[in-house]
Amino acid sequence: MALIVQKFGGSSVGDATKIKHVAKRVIETQKAGNQVVVVVSAMGDTTDELMDLANQVTDNPSPRELDMLLTAGERISMALLALAINAAGAQSRSFTGSQAGIVTDSKHGNARIAEVTPDRIREALDEGDIAIVAGFQGFNRETRDITTLGRGGSDTTAVALAAALNADVCEIYSDVDGVYTADPRQIPAARKLDYIDVESMLELAAAGAKILHIRAVEFARRHNVDLRVRSTFSTDPGTRVISGKTGGENMEESVVSGVATDKSQTKIIVVGIPDLPGKAAEVFNVVAEAGANIDMIVQNTATGVDVDDKVSDISFTLPKGDSAKVVGALEANQPTLGYRELEVDHEIGKISVVGAGMRTHSGVSATLFNALAKAGINIEMISTSEIRISVVTDITEADAAARAIHTAFGLDSDIEAVVYAGTGR
Asked: What's the predicted TM-score (pTM) here?
């Protein structure tokens, strides 16, 4: 008997008909001889609608009360799915995040999982029930408050439960058949992967691929949880994300696993900062104190005749939502930092090529840059890691850049990818 954790996103439980469909799939999994734990997101756009309501009653909602409000969405989904399963003749029990033993730190809105104690989940499974868990939420023991896990919270809940329960696999269901070589909404010729190593999946998630959230992939990597990405609306076996726990030892690493596009970032250039030891540290201390996460960083060669006159420019990218507070912090510290001006560009796109085989294969950079050159696309920034190359372009050229790169690496499929519904989350 295998223990399987299944996570269904908002588009999978978007209405009563879809919830009944999910119930049928879950029951089929149990009838195949498995113990089943199901993690659900809020229905459709429920979380956004609840957030809109909060903003209608106050311009500055309390983080604690906001968490109490937003967790209602997942509680609705879990109860409805349990009702549907019971009505179909199987037995299930629903649990909130706190009832499921998801223990977090005290940070509202973006809590981190500190511990998972799934005693009540084990009891339900031992009694032959299907356990339904509300994703995206937990509780803090010290404050005794409900918390939410932030973006990707339901994915993270599912992987954390799979690790705590020593599950055989954690299946992440969405509205596409698996992990593709690119977003099939952007590149219909994207090819579905049968498997991908967890390191490449982690880089793709960090680069903007939306099929799995980076926190969930990192949790899976750290705790050796094997993932399978599947569609709620088809029987396709999906894509295995190999953690190394099982079956990954003899897997040949792909040179390029996929291309990811991210249009959610801003580029900031600190122009004319003195070229002195410690100035870069001062800049990024200010950024860190503003609470922003930096992605790409480029510093140009210093210009100037005399040592005392030499200046350089520092460029970096960060999420658009963090740009206003970072710009404000840098402007407030301009007298200390000594730079001339700030340039802010919200209209950028980041395109990343990822593949574990890049460690041992040459020519990847040449292929990428030749593809962009032939497409007449200018590169504004470049960043690399062992298994990733990222470039920044103007946002209007990002989609064309991704398509050119995807084709150049031979990733196009002759069969158009199917997107069943929603946004892929």
From this structure: 0.86
